[in-house]
Each structure stands twice: as C-alpha cells, then as structure tokens.
Amino acid sequence: ASSAAMTGDMESAAASAAVTASVVVASRDRGHLMLSGRFNSDAIVAYMKEVKSQLETRDVAVFMVDASTGQDFGQMTCEGLYRAKGMVAFCTSEYGAYTGAGYETFYELEFAHQNQLPLFPIRLCDQWPPAPLNNERGTCQNRFVFKKSLVFAEDRQMTNARGVADKIAASVARLGIFRTKLQL
Questions:
Q1: What count of other Cβ atoms lies within 10 Å of the Cβ of residue 152?
Q2: What span, in angstroms and rounded, lies between the C-alpha atoms of 54 and 80?
Q3: Domain of life, per the record (predicted)?
Q4: Of the candidates 88, 80, 89, 105, which has an alpha carbon nearest to the alpha carbon of residue 30?
Q5: Residues 4-48: pLDDT tens digits?
Q6: Which residue from 48, 99, 123, 124 has the fewest beta carbons nearer than 10 Å?
C-alpha cells in the first residue's frame, strides 16, 4: 500500500476510537502520546528515541519513560499513562508479553484499551499481531486489542522513523487529538 493510503487508512481506523474516547481525552491532565515498547534491546530503545525526536519536531507532545539511577520507572509509567491522550505501541515480537513485573507493555496496552485511548501501532515484527513466545496471556490480549481493522504503520527494519512519525503526526492532526483553545 502507498504511504498516502496507509496514512488515510490509519486515520479512518483510529477515528472511531477517537470519537468513542472523546470524554476520556478531554481531561486537562492529558496532554501527550505515550510511547510504549519493550526496552529489552539497545536497537529498539534507539529507534523509539528517534521516533520520539521526529514526533517532537512535528509538534506532537510525546512521553517516553527515561529513568536513571534512583528513579522509579513504575511511577513514571503510571504518570505517563495517566496523562496520555493516545498511545504509540512499538510492536516487536515480544510486545505485550505478560511477565509479572507489574510495569510492562502488557499493562500499558491493557490500560490504553480499557480507557479507550487511540492506539497508533508500529509493526516491527513479522507476525501480526505480536505473539510473545510462550506467553498465552500476552498473545491473547494482543489479538483482542490489535484487531484486523486497526491500521498500523510498518517499519520492520526500523529504518524509517521519519516516515512513521509523518504517519502518526498526520493521523493525530486529522483526528484532532491535541486541540488548541482556538479549535474548541
């Protein structure tokens, strides 16, 4: 599919979620897209940071947990989700795995779904939806949330952060997720 068609499809699929979530996202406490991904490799973290940077240059407010020694990444995750107007899911093959850690992509996805946050999935793996190895609970939730009608951006080689950011920024703008006072 062409880039333009992909962006249009992503907007159409997310539009119904945005309308349903209008009450949820109206809160003054919400103001960014939460970037959700497994921080289990340097390559994925670097890619997430590049997409984050690209979105910021397009004036899309984003949040990515970045905890250093002595900081509580769990609290940062909770606050990031609480203030999210939508979520970008960096879907590697292990995305959504239930690990029992308590602060993981499984719970981030569950929160986004339960609170009707618009989802902007980025497909980074071969199997869709992601099916974490030996993880039935995560695989089940991924199949439920990442339904066939939800359009994703694709960048399996993690070489087109700019193009992915373009698609997300265009969808966010068309959906009116970050309305200014003049638009209200």
A1: 22
A2: 19
A3: Eukaryota
A4: 80
A5: 444 445 444 444 343 333 333 344 568 999 999 999 999 999 999
A6: 99
